[in-house]
Amino acid sequence: MMEKVGPVINYEKYFSESIDRLKVEGRYRVFNNLERKAGSFPLAKSHITGRTVTVWCSNDYLGMGQHPKVITAMAEAIGRLGAGAGGTRNISGTHHAMVTLEETLSELHGKEKALVFTSGYVANEASLGTLLSMLPECIVFSDEFNHASMIHGMRNSKCEKQIFCHNDPDHLEELLRAADPARPKVIAFESVYSMDGDISPIAAFCDLADKYNAITYLDEVHAVGMYGPRGAGVAERDGVMDRVTIIQGTLGKAYGVMGGYITGSRALIDMIRSYAPGFIFTTALPPALTAGATASIRHLMESGEERARQHYNVQVTRGMLEKAGLPVMNSNSHILPVLVGDPVLTKQASDMLLNQFDIYVQPINFPTVPRGTERLRITPNPTHTHAMMVELTRALVWVFERLGIKADEEKLQEVA
């Protein structure tokens, strides 16, 4: 054994202290051990309580993760093509199920090409990081509430970043007007913001992009599958999909599987494919996942039943919560955030819902949302019944009364 040089460093101490800080702040995250029941969504078995619980916070917004068409497509693919992709697409080749998926995605968004990544996070980080670094002297204009994956991609590019006030076309125009007209410009924003549930003015941002010779990068992660006549997102719903330069989405939320993607022009997609490390050096999604995603997209392109039922359930649930006096934030999407405003109380509320009522709603704390705006994030889906909505409302009223959580109109207005 070699002789040690210098003092002994207690690395475990640093790790433990970092976790202790989170616990003191009330921000330590506990993963609930759940086992979803195929065909019984939104029910799941809790391996913490040992009982069946109703899930009210899933991002499988339409229950497509358990749809018979998706399960059948995945089972058939794994039986015919095997479990894995064999490696990166550059080394092992691109399996045909991936080609079919990318063709389906480009059709969905009306773009020339699509490129699939292992997750929505990787799609944003790799695509924005590569795009911005390939445009000389580029300036990126970023909504202040953009997702961490977008922020990290921008940071990795090392290009100049200017932040505009959330969903504010006037402030964005101020920044664009002050910029050098000769410099390339990218406006990056989301359609549905997942924690507040509000929707961006896509058309207004596209107008500014046209006026100031910029291109647009739109994250539709929380919208694809759920908005528009074919489920292509808010841009399709608003009739502006053709005006957006790059549309990014996920296969892991409304489509119920896993993966992320971008769509755009042939040259742009080829550039990202050829330069993005997050694409080049990552093992491709296996055939079963890509086949399942294709089946889910195809179904939702043709069927509006799931979207209609979800939108109806969202409105009914919102009405019940508001009538009960619960502090529901003002969102105009399928996401219903209920404001608590304290990390410890938010965790306590979540635990009480699970332990007393078999209702699972995960607490949302900093850094996912700003300090002082901690909340419970409720996402009704097509499979929630009226009885489940009544029980959720009654349970929340009981919990909020026991914990002394009241609707703070000033805070609600501030967050909105």
List keywords for this structure.
seven-stranded mixed β-sheet, globular, alpha/beta
Structural notes for this entry:
There is one protein chain. This protein is α/β, with parallel strands linked by helices and 416 residues long. It has helices at residues 11-25, 68-81, 89-92, 96-109, 120-134, 148-157, 169-178, 202-211, 234-237, 266-275, 277-280, 287-302, 305-323, 343-357, 386-403, 409-415; strands at 34-36, 43-46, 52-55, 113-117, 139-143, 160-164, 185-190, 215-219, 246-250, 260-264, 336-339, 359-360, 363-364, 375-378. Helix 8 (202-211) links the parallel strand 7 (185-190) and strand 8. The longest helix is centred in the last third of the chain and has 19 residues, at 305-323. The N and C termini lie far apart (62 Å). The mean pLDDT is 95.
Spell out the helices and strands N to C.
HEEEHHHEHEHEHEHEHEEHHHHEHEEEHH
Low-confidence segments, given as residue ranges, are none
Largest sheet: 7 strands, mixed
| Total strands | 14
Q: Identify the overall geometry.
A: globular
How far apart the termini lie comes to 62 Å
Q: Nearest-angstrom radius of gyration?
A: 22 Å
User: Which structural category do the helix and sheet elements fall into?
Assistant: alpha/beta
Average pLDDT reading: 95
Strand content: 5-15%
Count of discrete alpha- or pi-helical segments spanning 4 or more residues: 16
Strand order of the largest sheet: 4-10-9-8-7-5-6
Q: Percent helix among the residues?
A: 40-55%
